[in-house]
C-alpha cells in the first residue's frame, strides 16, 4: 500500500514541477514586500499611462466638442481636478496591485511549502512515511517532530 501512496505523491510532485514550479521560483526569489514593490511599479506605470490618455481625451473633448475657450479656462481648477483624478486612480491601483501581489506571493509560498513537505515525505525513511500516510488516512494531519515549520 505504501508504494501506491508514494506513486501518487511522486505524480503530484511531477505535475507541480511541470506546471507551477518555474512561476513559483520566480516569485520566491523576492521577499514579500520586495515582490509587492516590484509588481506595484509596473501597475503604477500602466495606470498612470492609461490615466494620462483619459485626461488627454477629456481635454480634447473640452476643446473640440464643448468649444471651450482655452484662454478663458480656469486652469487652476481644471488642473486640480485632473490631479485629484490621477491621484485617486494611482491610489486605487496601488491598493489593488498590492492585494493581488500579496495573494499571489502567499499562494506561491503555500504551494512550495506543500511541495517540500511531500518531497520530505517521499525521500524520508519508510517508517516516517508510513506514519504520515496512516495519520492522513485517519484524519490526523500531525507534524512530525523536527519538521514543524522547516520550509515556511
Brief account:
The protein has helices at residues 2-19, 21-27, 32-65, 75-123, 126-137. With 152 residues, it is mainly α.
Protein described:
- With 152 residues, the chain is mainly alpha-helical.
- It has one domain (2-137).
- The chain has five helices and no strands.
- It has helices at residues 2-19, 21-27, 32-65, 75-123, 126-137.
- Helix 1 packs antiparallel against helix 4 and helix 2 packs across helix 4.
- The longest helix is centred in the middle third of the chain and has 49 residues, at 75-123.
- The protein is rod-shaped and about 85 Å long.
- The two termini are 30 Å apart.
- 5% of the residues are buried.
Given the helix and strand composition, which structural class is it? mainly alpha
> What is the total number of structural domains?
1
What summary fits the major beta sheet?
Answer: none
Radius of gyration: 27 Å
- Average pLDDT metric: 82
Provide the helix percentage.
over 70%
Backbone shape: rod-shaped
* DSSP, total strands: 0
The topology string of helices and strands comes to HHHHH
Q: Please count the helical segments.
A: 5
End-to-end separation in angstroms reads 30 Å
Portion of residues in beta strands equals under 5%
Low-confidence stretches: 142-152
Keyword list:
152 residues; mainly alpha; 5 helices; 79% helix; rod-shaped
Write the layout of secondary structure elements.
Layout: H1 2-19, H2 21-27, H3 32-65, H4 75-123, H5 126-137
Helix pairs in contact: 1-4, 2-4, 3-4
